[in-house]
Amino acid sequence: QKEVEQNSGPLSVPEGAIASLNCTYSDRGSQSFFWYRQYSGKSPELIMFIYSNGDKEDGRFTAQLNKASQYVSLLIRDSQPSDSATYLCAVISSGTYKYIFGTGTRLKVLA
Amino acid sequence: GAGVSQTPSNKVTEKGKYVELRCDPISGHTALYWYRQSLGQGPEFLIYFQGTGAADDSGLPNDRFFAVRPEGSVSTLKIQRTERGDSAVYLCASSLNGGGTDTQYFGPGTRLTVL
Known about the structure:
The complex is a heterodimer of chains A (about 110) and B (about 120). Chain A is mostly beta strands. Chain A has strands at about 5, 10-15, 20-25, 30-40, 45-50, 55-60, 60-65, 70-75, 85-90, 100, 105-110. In chain A, about 0% of the residues lie in helices and about 55% in strands. In chain A, strands 2, 4, 5, 9, 10 and 11 form a six-stranded mixed β-sheet that branches.
């Protein structure tokens, strides 16, 4: 079982719709969870982090964390073609400062 | 500096050769990370420095890989006897203090191709 799992996609949504990206993790002791965006040929950039169960909103982005289900998601409201990228979920393993990344989900927002 | 920089941006080498990849973190950042990213995969953790010391090198795949950060700033990732399977983008990231509450800032990466 991979430590951090994501559906590789592509996930296609029409412009203006809500894109929902999901991630599961295996280390129940993980405390910190991150969403990065990576455009093709570029390096990852942080979108959001979340530490507590529940929702965290930042502009068009909402991160949701459910530690009991070992599940973290990212919602993108009013999706734009410029949101088309690969979205990487990352988790810090318990007791370490080691970031474990998923394989990423490729999002396509259709104009 | 304004951001994390990495040199070279591209490196082509022959199997069996030695390569060095350099990372200049954001000024004042004590934490520095090296990752390797293959096509279609997420970044794979290699090593984490806190200051001059390697706090976690559990991701280095074998003893051909070594990294240093002698003055707590610039870091060099060294790969001996390169193999074709080492071909990937090597990413460096830095953060202010390290730990789960810090934001990592990634450099542009070095694309290594081993022929």
